[in-house]
Model the fold of this input.
Amino acid sequence: MKKTRYIVLCLLMLSLSTFAQELVTLPMPNSGKVVIRLMFRNGSIADPKGKEGLTLLTTNVITEGSTKNYTTTQLQKTMYPWAARMGSSVDKEVSIFSFEVPSLYLEPFYALVKDVMLNPAFDSSDVERVRSNQKNYVDEVIRQSSDEEYGKKYLEYVLFRGTNYQHLKQGTSASIPTITIDDIRSHYKNFFTRNNIMIGVAGDYPSGFPERLKKDLTGLSDVQPKIPVPTISAPIQGANVTIVSKQGALGSAISGGFPLGITRSADYFAALMIANSWLGEHRKSYSRLYQKIREARSMNYGDYTYIEWYENGGGNMLPPAGTPRSINYFSVWLRPVQTAKGLKGQYEELSDLRVGHAPFAMKMALREMNDLINNGMSEEDFEKTRDFLRSYSKLYVEGMSKKLGYAMDSRFYGRKDWIAELDQLLSTTTRELTNNIMKKYWQTGNMEWVIVTDESEVDPLVKTFKDNAPAPIAYSNGLKASLSKEILAEDEIINKYPFPVNKVTVVQSDKTFQGE
Done:
């Protein structure tokens, strides 16, 4: 554990330098389009204590609000005939502004880009509108729109407790109302400066345009931002389960994870990508967990694993750019499985069922992961998965905006072109190295788990975990009759698979993300 924490600290020190107007260019003549991408080294870790959500609020007011020369309505009406777009995003360590326009309209659009970035009005009506939407997300949307995303976000809240990685980028119910216009103006001046910006330009732009953009952005504040150091959470002791009790939840959405002391900055990360792809590649039916949990047993819609944060996993088929981090973690995402209440309501033969499928699904995921760590990948599985990744990873950068985004993320990790370098790393990675890297960085004994589930399922889950009790999977008569003897025999093994839990915590859904 000490060695892992030392590696993480080294990665942090490597990543602390600001971008200082680094310029990334991807000329694509005849593409007919220009993309501008501005990455600021700040992110939600720059939110002051008690003002969580300030960085996101600042970026959103800039791109969704007025400037000193244009109202929001005027900006929208002016851009509409050009089919131009502007937007922003925030993650833990970076904030990004994106602008896209057909090259035919670059000059008039660029005038608006400069005005948006250099002359934001921070109008009170804009601030109130954006702040209200942001608070509504924390109070309502995150809890009601997707239990899967809810669980993943709360896993981060639990996993990074006590650190500046903990809070939602949107902030907390307590912090958002306290953010004032003066806070936003000050944050813009001190954290969105010429000294912590990386500038990216791609497409069919005229000669000298990137340099002109770089020169114009010296009009940003000249403050040297004091970016907080990303802080590391305390080591996890054993398996801990947090159950979020939500009235009316249709299933049990499960997320689990542990800190991972490696990022794309390390060459060995490519080896871990191979193992992870075989175990649980996002939205890929060939992966082990998908085959075991969904295909063989029809328990849910999908089961995936990740070795870095995957933004909007419910909506994205491919990993998007724009969330580079110096602190990393492994996670498993088991899409909602049925509760006892749901199963009993559908099948009369299950009327005596005590608890739903969550414990069984978790045990199965742990067993598969332990088997992979202990026994390694076979040569055949390794070769097939490596070949797949060499092709699949090239799809990450299809399109100008994605290609520019990945190029800029590469610089965050001290690389030139991660996707090109990844192909080379994968081509030289061996099965022996992959199996050794798994043993070095993966484990299952010390993990945080979050289950978002219906209130009716809470007490049975608590008892099951505290007693380390068996929790056999419950099939309808029709489904059970269709399953092979091999699957049913394996079910008995999984049912008895040990899963000692150190601590079980129950949180009411309306108490999450409220602020410390």
